[in-house]
Specification:
InterPro entries: Acyl-CoA-binding_prot_CS, Acyl-CoA-binding_protein, Acyl-CoA-binding_sf, FERM/acyl-CoA-bd_prot_sf. It is built from four helices and no strands. By secondary structure, the protein is mostly helical. The longest helix has 22 residues, at 68-89.
């Protein structure tokens, strides 16, 4: 299985977690997912009244230096950790 297929598989598996990850973990996953699928940030930072969108933008911006492949690998690693923790808690 290639990196892209492994990434897509884990992106789907994360959606089936029984326990919602922390907001911090969700933001990290979001940033890595966007970096892996879109690349570097290509939009302006949302205004201060759009708190949720601003936090998501900041999470994406934080991983901007990573290549798409690095972001995919980091996403997969984090997804595996969350899935293992979810399975252990069940």
């Amino acid at each position: 299985m290639g990196l892209k297929e492994d990434f897509e598989e884990h992106a789907e598996k994360v959606k089936s977690l029984t326990k919602k990850p922390s907001d911090a973990d969700l933001l990290i996953l979001y940033g890595l997912f966007k970096q892996a699928t879109v690349g570097s940030v290509n939009t302006d930072r949302p205004g201060m009244f759009s708190m949720k969108e601003r936090a998501k933008w900041d999470a994406w911006k934080a991983v901007e230096a990573k290549s798409k492949e690095e972001a995919m690998n980091d996403y997969i690693t984090m997804a595996k950790q969350l899935l293992e923790a979810d399975a252990a808690a069940a």
